[in-house]
């Protein structure tokens, strides 16, 4: 069984959450399975090792989990991208829309990254791209020039990749649905 088959088997889809008409892809069920966790990190490690990544930035909250594990595997620093009021120092902020919320905002510490960093941004799911696009904009505010981005899951019909591609971030997803 390949990694995509294992992830699809372990993934929980919750209909009508957080509102009617949304199919929510719940990756917390993947986290319950040690084999799935190990496969995910090994797959991402193989994909990104040797690319000179110096920091992994994880988007709150599910992006923290695999993002931090991947940072450890790559032996690089981890940068949290958080919701308002969660980071104690000066921050850059970026607002965005999601498919089910009219507006949200994320923040990054102003000194979390430097121009010399090569950054991998990790999140759980790419849908309409609002969150990942905002994270890429935040990393650009830190003057970073080389950015990679990834998600565990990419929802193809919502065309989020087209938006992400506009920013020159090399995007990769493990599973396309």
Structural class category: alpha/beta
Provide the CATH top-level class. Answer: Alpha Beta
User: Using DSSP, what is the number of strands?
Assistant: 9
Q: Spans with pLDDT under 50 lasting ≥5 residues? A: none
* CATH topology annotation: Rossmann fold
User: Spatial order of the strands in the main sheet?
Assistant: 4-3-7-8-9
Number of helices: 6
Largest sheet, in brief, is: 5 strands, parallel
Q: How big is the Rg?
A: 15 Å
Determine the N-to-C terminus distance.
17 Å
The number of distinct structural domains comes to 1
Mean pLDDT, all residues: 94
The topology string of helices and strands comes to HEEHHEHEEEEHEHE
Which band does the percent of strand residues land in?
A: 25-35%
CATH architect. name: 3-Layer(aba) Sandwich
What is the helix fraction of residues, given as a range? 25-40%
Overall shape: it is globular
